[in-house]
Design a protein that fits this description.
The protein is of the alpha+beta class. The protein has a domain of 161 residues: Alpha-Beta Complex (Photosynthetic Reaction Center, Chain H, domain 2). Strands 1, 2, 3, 4, 5, 6 and 7 form a seven-stranded mixed β-sheet that branches. 11% of the residues lie in helices and 13% in strands. The protein contains six helices and seven strands. It is rod-shaped and about 175 Å long.
Length: 301
């Protein structure tokens, strides 16, 4: 099983830790002895933490080593990582970690060999010095792996829980919960408006004045009646005719269509603020101590 840097496994790994980053945490051998900082984290192909890459710049200048997660205690409150039972001599014996060096079975065995060696184990098969102080479980060498599997990542990290599993005694998590008020909007249909048109009828009346011509024949006696007139071509002309054209108007009533008005249909959004109020609960930490334990952080007696 190959190992990856945590950013190679998940570029957004910080989101899993609420934006916090374990990289950069200080590493302490005890409450007052800082030995370095975490420069990276190595995970397996399933994303399980396997090693912290510790820069021992303050302890051993320029050297980086691997710290199995089972030999650590993470204190998120103080942003610290404590090693379990590590001495400076053991740090010097650890093989140096190089950024571009392949991490194969043989390299990991060198690392594991230091943590299985004297100082972690008082003697073969006995509890380690950390266990004698109530800090963990004895580390026994794992069953041997056949040579043909050593270079195929045949190592099973579960066979050495004291190196690769977080110890419940040293990694207790007490979760404090808090309520928060969430305001969301839900879009609901409150109605529907259908705009159409229909035709209505009515009877309209209109008056149109028209003209009709008529011929009026009137016979009158001229003022010079009885006087003699000369005989000419117009007298006693039996073929004389008068022509008059007579006209009248007729009403032409018909319908035509014209644009009366336009109706525009659209929507506008009115804005208003709705306020809500709820009682929120928050859990606070109560720490009660007996006698005189060494406790870092807030203590309430």
């Amino acid at each position: 099983m190959s190992l990856l840097k945590i950013k190679e496994f998940d570029p957004n790994y910080r989101e899993s830790f609420e934006g916090k980053d374990i990289k950069g945490m200080d590493v302490y051998a005890n409450a007052n002895e800082k030995i370095g900082t975490v420069s990276d984290i190595l995970v397996d192909e399933q994303g399980h933490f396997r090693y912290f890459v510790v820069d021992l710049g303050l302890w051993i200048f320029g050297k980086k080593v691997l710290l199995p997660v089972g030999r650590s205690r993470v204190d998120h409150t103080a942003d610290r990582i404590y090693t379990v039972g590590m001495t400076k001599q053991q740090a010097e014996n650890l093989p140096e970690f190089h950024e571009h060096k392949e991490i194969d079975y043989n390299y990991e065995e060198q690392v594991r060999g230091v943590y299985r060696s004297e100082g972690f184990l008082e003697d073969s098969g006995s509890v380690d010095t950390a266990t004698s102080r109530g800090m963990g479980t004895a580390i026994a060498p794992p069953p041997p792996i056949p040579d043909h599997q050593k270079h195929k990542n045949g190592y099973d990290y579960q066979q050495e829980p004291a190196l690769y599993e977080l110890n419940d005694e040293n990694h207790q998590t007490f979760k404090l919960y808090q309520e928060r008020l969430i305001a969301n909007k839900v879009r609901e249909k409150t109605g529907e408006v259908i705009v159409g048109k229909h035709t209505e009828t009515e009877t309209a009346r209109v008056s149109v004045p028209i003209e009709k011509e008529r011929v009026v024949i009137e016979r009158v006696t001229p003022s010079d009646a009885g006087e003699a007139v000369p005989l000419g071509s117009e007298t006693f002309n039996s073929g004389e005719v008068a022509h008059l054209e007579v006209y009248e108007e007729n009403a032409d009533i018909h319908k035509e269509v014209f644009l009366r008005e336009e109706v525009k249909v659209n929507k506008v959004v009115d804005h208003e603020t709705v306020e809500g109020e709820e009682v929120l609960r928050r859990e606070e930490l109560d720490v009660n101590t007996e006698e005189h334990p060494n406790v870092e952080g807030p203590v309430r007696k």
